[in-house]
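QUALITY CONTROL LOG
STEP: pairwise intake check
CHECKER ROLE: data steward
CRITERIA: each record must contain a sequence immediately followed by its structure tokens, with no blank fields

ENTRY 1 OF 2
RESULT FIELD BELOW
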Amino acid sequence: MSFILDKSFPKEVKYAQDNNIPLVIAGGTVEYHGPHCSYGCDTLVVEGLLEKLAKKKEIMIAPSIAYSPSSYAVGDKKSGTVHVPEKAFEEYVYYVFKSLLYAGFRNIYVVIHHQFEQESEMPMTLCYRLAAKRAIMEYLEETLGKGWWGSDNYASYYEELEGKNNPFNWIKVIPTMSKKVQDATGYDHAGEFESSILMALYPECVKLERIDDRKHWFTESASKANIELGKKMVRLSLNHLMNSIK
């Protein structure tokens, strides 16, 4: 049985915490994706996959974070893209993470489908990861005191680096599509591949008949988008998430 955090009650939250159920956050954007894909494409891809994952694995889905450092690399300030500068965004998610840690969550995942080609370290991903490490480090100092790591209580730290007792594993940032999945299908921005996976998850959010409303090099391949390819991308992405979210 899976849960939605903002529709849950203290009993469900305590159950998730006591059983180390993954708390999963969709890290998305509001970004221009050509004339044929909806602005919430990146967020919707994650949300759609998490909805399917929740039917296969017990997880708690937290509210999505949609406004983010999407950048104006694709479209200018008039394109409809919402860009939050990196420093402001990092500070915001830092406080989100810190609140979740104080609440008692110890198995948090942020899943991203934006600028993650070949699992590259782009600004939004780096913001999440830096905010996560900051939040964890400060939480540990505030709750365990200065010198917590050097105390005898953490003498087994190196033996437990890969285990659940390693505090720096409390928050993980992962892509919807691993490098292996991308190599098996493809990855682009509003082209054949992204249009296909969005079409498979939310067909009403892709209108291929509008591709020619405005020409872009990055949308030229979108005319080849199809449900069959999208379903394959969804299947492989779900397998990746099933194995990565534990």
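ENTRY 2 OF 2
RESULT FIELD BELOW
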Amino acid sequence: MVVYLKPVATAAALFFILSVALTVPWAIYQYRKHGYFSVWKSILLASFLFYGMSAYFLVILPLPAVRDNCQVLGPLSSYMQTNPFQFIHDIKRESAVVWSDWRSYRQLIQVPAFYQLFFNVLLLFPLGVYARYVWQRKRDVWKVALLGFFTSLFFEVTQLTGLYGLYKCPYRLFDVDDLLANTTGALFGFFIAPLFLMLVPSKQQLIQRDEKMERQKEATRGAELLALLIDLVIAQFVSTVLSNLTGWSERLLFLIILGALQVVYPLVKDGRTLGSTVVRIRYVSIDPVVWKALLKRWLAIALPYVFGMLATFLNEQVPFVEGFDLLFILAIVGISLLVFAWVAMHIIWRLIRQNKPFYFDHYSGIVAVNIRKEGEVT
């Protein structure tokens, strides 16, 4: 069993790295295309990515210790098993199973040839389930058969070529029975997939949700938060670079650059910031004096950061003060922590409920709206 767990653990570690690296690009893609972040799409895609990596690592791992892995040089055919249903003879050879006596089948779980067959069937079983989600008609079964066969063939060729020449000789056997078992597993998964797919929204439901959100005028809280995070990252990056070049205060530069991104840039770019342009939203002011509304929004966004700056400065003075001065400093630091906690909980709650604006939008009278692909406001 350990031989199967190690590849899955490897896939899990790599999946974590990829998921962290792809979270923001994937979120940007969803907001640009549909105007919202689909949790179910993300779950389905993430599960398929993890399954694909697990299946691949199960096929190629463990790798040989050295590239020159040849034990005995021989023709390529010596690394191939081309007799269909050879597994039946292997099971009979490795066990005392009598095919006419079903009670002897209990021995199968101890036979290497049997559980190798079982895991080969199981390997592409999930692929059949995912394929049924995409191709929902039973008459598309031939597509699944081809998909399962060529996926299995890819695995077998990968092994036969020693990872396409990375190793001098094949380090696993090309087995025609693996092609049959893998393809059978994909077909089996396709036919019983409805038992699993009843737990997730259908493809049509997700498409209808996409169309509904694309027609929605007001941007989602997630899209607006992602746009703001992009602006914050840009402001932090630029302020760090400028601080290193000029020696000026990085914190002060951050506030100035963030103000330019949140106030000046939208005034000349029809309500867009750099971040909102990425996710295809723009900001509309209820107040006819747009610059005033944008200024109020920037101040509301910057307020927690200002409190943080003040708390950091005062915390540095703690070793040098005592008495009421120390109590005053500790009180300010405590208030700053409460402000940060409130902002964090407020943002999380707004993301969950989606029915009210963020505090900085409510205070400033700013509304974030979606932008059509052709550049018109929805």
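INTAKE CHECK: passed for both entries
DESCRIPTIVE NOTE, ENTRY 2: The chain has three domains: 1-62, 73-215, 216-370.
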